[in-house]
Amino acid sequence: MKVSARFLLIFAVGASATIFALMQGRTRALRSDGGSEGQTRTAWGAPDLQGIWNTNTFVPLERQTQYGTRATMTEDEHAKALADLQDRNKRPGRDSRDVGGKPGQGTEKDVARAYNEFWFGDKPTKLSYRTSMVTDPPDGRIPPLTPEAAKRIADKREFLAALLQGTSGGRPGPISPRRNDPSPDYNLDRINRSDGPEDRGGPERCFGDGVPVVLGTGTFGGVMQLVQSPDSVSIYYDVGQGSGYSWVVPITNRPHLPANVRLYRGDPVGRWEGDTLVVDTIGIKESVRYQNVPHSREMRIAERMRFVSPYVLCNEITITDPTVFEKPWTFTFAYQRMKDYTLLEYICEDNREFADDQGRQKIRVDPGR
After folding, report:
1. Is residue 231 part of a domain?
2. 185-195: per-residue pLDDT in tens?
3. Same domain, 20 and 66
4. 355 phi and psi, to 5 degrees?
5. Are the C-beta atoms of residues 298 and 325 closer than 8 Å to each other?
6. Region of residue 266 (left: phi > 0; alpha: psi -120 to 50; beta: else)
7. Which of 109, 204, 321, 353 is the least crowded, having the fewest Cβ atoms under 10 Å away?
8. pTM of the model
9. What is the C-alpha end-to-end distance of the chain, expressed in Å?
10. 240-266: per-residue pLDDT in tens?
């Protein structure tokens, strides 16, 4: 059969119209499901946050004072900051064995390095135009500490320095008379003493990170896996060395636990406000820290998690702790969805069973938790 040019033209126009209509319908369906193209919803109608996420674009937590109250860099400022980042990436890091500009092979500091740069994974190569994660206060800086909190931190630093006396990293002299003193707070630091597990750092004792968790940039900075059900969200963090853990947030209208019940990472209660997952956490143990700053019993964390694009999840966190900070503060960061990534089961390297080649248990290393 001979096909005319007129027939082909009519067929092409009709096919194009059909494809356009189907695409429009697909777009409307995606938007009704998830608010933007590529975003989907769970079977029970909530935004589908499930997947593996990390942060691959560097944003400093606090703003450098040179930017004032500006939330973003100019093109020239960004180009210079990106060049500085790339220059830092070229440095040898832990592969260097120089100490004070001289070869350090065989020295105490050389041995203490433990790992070379390979184990720290891929370094960040992307830089945001944002000048800080902190969005409130307007200067992009964490508010000052209260006098009480500042004193607690100063007392701990003085104690740590005292225990280093007489070592290569401390003041010269004999062993400090404070050698056997208890720590002024619940110790989570690496200190120059090993009389018991309480003298070791939190990661070494497999306590995991504190709250809130902010993933660092690059492979070693960590990844997050999120799994949903109608009445909960389960978040699994694999962070750095000895700092990962799982966190289950119930989606419920129940009240918080009584004030006398204190949990290591607090009592989170989640709810949906439209397409935003809101998590309110109180009742956090005072021993937990964030940015190496102690918490108080009054600490409250409010998180708001929502999509800003199909593959970018924004988390806005407000910390209120009047005993520690002079005023509440808010910071915002973004997760990027990872593709073709397998997250292995997390295990803290200091809390496992070792066996000989016949499978018989030889020794169990217990961090004393």
Report:
1. yes
2. 989 888 999 99
3. no
4. -130, 155
5. no
6. left
7. 353
8. 0.78
9. 83
10. 766 778 899 999 999 999 988 988 889
